[in-house]
NDUFA4 mitochondrial complex associated like 2 (Myotis lucifugus), 87 residues
Amino acid sequence: MAGTGVGARLYRQIKRHPALIPMIGFIGLGMGSAALYLLRLALRSPDVCWDRKNNPEPWNRLSPNDQYKFLAVSTDYKKLKKDRPDF
């Protein structure tokens, strides 16, 4: 098996055991979903600061009606008013 690649070995295993196809599909779907969620956290979260020179504190620029949570069950962000001071 010194000359075979990973893709060829995977193809042979799938050909021998077709029940592996759904498992490989779900594993691929889970890995893709995790990668997209990490990308979303890195780009949209106010806790992450990519540009420290122009925007050193990005959490201070959020208005109260900005929704940055992934899922807000009982909070309507459009009705919130500003109740904190400007820094």
Remarks:
- The chain has two domains: 1-44, 49-86.
- Residues 44 and 68 are 7 Å apart (CA to CA).
- Residues 49-86 form one domain.
